[in-house]
Specification:
The chain is α+β, with helices and mostly antiparallel strands. It is built from 14 helices and 29 strands.
Amino acid sequence: MAEDGPQKPLDWKVPLQLLGATAGLTAFIAFVGASLLWVRFHDLGLPADRAVALLPRELVLVIGAQALAVPVLVALGAVILIYTVDPFDDEGKPENRLWVALPVGAILLAVVGWLVLDVDVWPEGAIVVGVLLVALAAIVGTARRGGGFRPVGWIVFAAIVFVGGTLAFVRTSFEPKMEPVAALLDDPPGSIVGFYVGEANDRLYIARLPGVLPGSARVSAEPIETVVAIPRDRVVRMALRGPAGLSDADAGRERAQSALEELIAQERPPPTDARVAPVATEDPVKTFAPLVHLHSRERIAPTSVDYFLANSRLVWVHRGGCRDYLPDLDRHLDDDDARRVRIPRPVDVERLGNGGYTHRANAKGCRERGRPFKSTEFTRPHGGEGRAQELRSAREGFALDLENARRRPRPSVTRSSGEALLNPVPVYYERHPAADGERITYWFFYPLSQPPGSPRVTRFFVHEGDWERMSVLVRPEADKRRWTPVSVRYHLHDEHRDVAWTDVRKAPDEDGRQTHPVGFVASGSHATYHRPGRFENVFDAGGRRLFKVFDDARACPACPRWLTWQSLVHAQGQPWYGFGGAWGQVGADGGLSGPLGPSPHKTVGRSPSPEDVVQQERR
């Protein structure tokens, strides 16, 4: 039996290289995880070095692995591709260097190009592209000088992982985000709100917001206090929200607060028979006036009606093809008037509210016929049911046309003790009897409504003149010196939501009594919500989805607070009250017409929903 030839010694290089690569990859993953946490903690205002050092290594590795999962898979795919193509001869020299450069370069460019789509070109994109070019140069240089599959495979793997880590760090540095979290705890019972860090060793790690309590309107915007570790078995219920920004102007802190209140409502709903004690007051309008939070990025301030009327012209809008009419000038609009808004003279407010302005509708051939319509009649263009019956064209009617340059007044804010307070702006109120008592309606007026979002969608919702409101239902006692609040009505686009007084967020009055209901105004659209958050509004018609608009309502130190009780004005006593036309121009650029304002027409609910008006004005 022939003896076997001499055995080749075992090549220990491969397992040693694999061991070294594994250790290096693990260290790099830990480095990336620690870097991402450091950036987020630093943006929260925590001592980032100590916060990262106190976290368990397993958690740091998990966060780094999450960030590098896709780059590692892409790197493995690139190495397998090179091995399959095998462009190297037995001596380890490249037969065709393009076999290495082209496929690997294509993979890097495609993957990184796709990943960089959600970052700015400068400086984020520039940093990633610079690292990408260095990685490609290292791959090509190794292929030309080193040759062989192993060195090229290692450098390809390392280059792609390094580019992926750089991309994760750059994206986090320029826009750090974390997941808002709220949790109910047991033994002893309690709650916690903050940003989710992770879980390890059967513990939950949260960057905690201090002092958050149910019903608190602003505490969720306070700085982060610390990172806390909670045993997982203490968590009774937990709610996570999608990643959000960490600064005071972002919505993440308010989303965490909202999540806590939702959890508490699910866990311990308030009793339906909860009784509310009457409030002693001789001025219920002031006592129950709301505290309103404006968005920190609101660019259209609430104004007085006087501001709007002083910068508007009154127009009778005729149907298509017929020139509109200016009552104050007693003439129709000429071509020069049609090209730009000009204020011929201030609107006579007394005539506006007592029916002193009149005009006739158009018949065939643009001839004015029939009876004159008063400015106090319901003539709002596209007003729907309830308009004056003789108006045959939906487009005809009175409208106040605001000068375009006056549409976006900036909020006037005073900052005191770290808070932003809106300087007094008139809030117009009405009082009407209701089945269960009396309803006090508080009207807020904005020159323009322009929801944030893609202009392709939101242009159908832009309109001049934006009347928004909250109302409080109160029940008077026999002596009319004590009033029991029952509920608060929040108006949102084409609907409203009634919230029981026991569930309403409230702010204290001068005597410390919780009597002022709190409202949160969405940026641009000015819809008023009962809590901060991001709200989706879908408009359907005929079973078909028309549009989807997102409202963002917040409470934060940079969000101006509107103390409405400082500037209350009785709407029914104003000379313009009762105007039945549109507060704003009619259907400009595909948008909505101006709405009805406070008047008997509005009170009886004759203002149509936006989706109805959208259909009318798209025909």
